[in-house]
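tokens incoming
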């Protein structure tokens, strides 16, 4: 069960990374192409919320380690902040201008989480868990004649 949960966690993590890339592409279309894509960017952004929630649930089920779960919680919090930033446009435009900066943070953290999730899925253990050092080689036997 845990193995499948870890595979699902890795898949959802990479799907989230892809969704962030698509989201950036949509706003690019809205800025440099048809203005209607701005609304698509908004709607798709809200639908990503379902994905980040599923990612959080998958992380809890997959049990990839406390650090990775903490990073996914951080990703969830950054997503919530991302949805709130545009509402500050009228009153605090400098705060709303942090929307693309936060998107960069989300992308970077999502990429890190996805890579960690892949490591957990492949190794079957906690990501970032210390690895025991290899035993030191035995000393060569001394020759009695020397």
């Amino acid at each position: 069960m845990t193995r499948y949960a870890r595979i699902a966690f890795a898949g959802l993590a990479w799907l989230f990374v892809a969704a962030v890339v698509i989201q950036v592409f949509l706003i690019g279309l809205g800025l440099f192409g048809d203005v209607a894509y701005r609304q698509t960017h908004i709607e798709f952004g809200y639908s990503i919320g379902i994905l980040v929630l599923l990612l959080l649930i998958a992380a809890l089920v997959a049990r990839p380690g406390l650090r990775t779960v903490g990073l996914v919680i951080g990703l969830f919090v950054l997503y919530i902040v991302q949805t709130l930033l545009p509402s500050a446009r009228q009153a605090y435009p400098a705060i709303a201008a942090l929307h693309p900066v936060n998107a960069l943070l989300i992308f970077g953290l999502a990429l890190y989480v996805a890579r960690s999730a892949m490591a957990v899925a492949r190794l079957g253990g906690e990501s970032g868990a210390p690895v025991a050092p290899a035993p030191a080689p035995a000393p060569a036997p001394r020759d009695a004649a020397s």
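note: Residues 2-123 form one domain.
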